[in-house]
């Protein structure tokens, strides 16, 4: 069984780490380079760097900032935001990224997943899926462009297609739970886990140690991501790992 991963996320907007609730009301947290260095010291298993306004601003992810962050960490670094071509993927991998997170661009051009997987290996290609539950139908729907546009895609079907196209991992964010600290959307990850057989990272809703235990025990996810909980020092990664181990979860050391 794969050891479970604890993954902090840096949502970066024009060079500053930001955090909000339900993808809105973003507040400044600090420098991505300094925060990344702190997570390296705390023993994070991986780090996700998302340029959250690159797509809306129609610009590329900041390779220079990625390079600075990569110099601070030895753990795997996943980078996403505004990536629309193989060349952009290559530039970021050259800048120090280990994996590329693709979101809005592959909704319009799904073959970009295949192109990236064939050139760099499927282990390098992470399909990020921002999901919101439709109140009327109860269906999980995919949103793009920083959570501002409902694509109409069924999240479970899109997850399956992304894997069929070559994605080696999924980063699934519940927009409903994002920043609320009310726990992960267990039903969402159970459904995604039944649909695909690649590593899944759960994102959105972590508020306490018990939430991580809950998602690891009740769903097949292999990684759990959090931002504000770690950014504001409410929970230390070492403390979380110790708690999970004490409760029978196999975590990385």
From TrEMBL:
Supply one GO BP term: L-histidine biosynthetic process
Q: Which GO terms describe its cellular component?
A: cytoplasm
| EC id | 4.3.2.10
Q: In which pathway does it act?
A: Amino-acid biosynthesis; L-histidine biosynthesis; L-histidine from 5-phospho-alpha-D-ribose 1-diphosphate: step 5/9
Top EC class, one word:
lyase
Catalytic function, reaction form: 5-[(5-phospho-1-deoxy-D-ribulos-1-ylimino)methylamino]-1-(5-phospho-beta-D-ribosyl)imidazole-4-carboxamide + L-glutamine = D-erythro-1-(imidazol-4-yl)glycerol 3-phosphate + 5-amino-1-(5-phospho-beta-D-ribosyl)imidazole-4-carboxamide + L-glutamate + H(+)
Residues forming the catalytic site: 11, 130
Answer yes or no on keyword Ribosomal protein: no
Q: Does the keyword Amino-acid biosynthesis apply?
A: yes
Q: How does it assemble?
A: Heterodimer of HisH and HisF.
Function statement: IGPS catalyzes the conversion of PRFAR and glutamine to IGP, AICAR and glutamate. The HisF subunit catalyzes the cyclization activity that produces IGP and AICAR from PRFAR using the ammonia provided by the HisH subunit.
Query: Which protein, by its recorded name, is this?
Result: Imidazole glycerol phosphate synthase subunit HisF
Q: Which organism is it from?
A: Ligilactobacillus ruminis (strain ATCC 27782 / RF3) (Lactobacillus ruminis)
What is the gene called? hisF
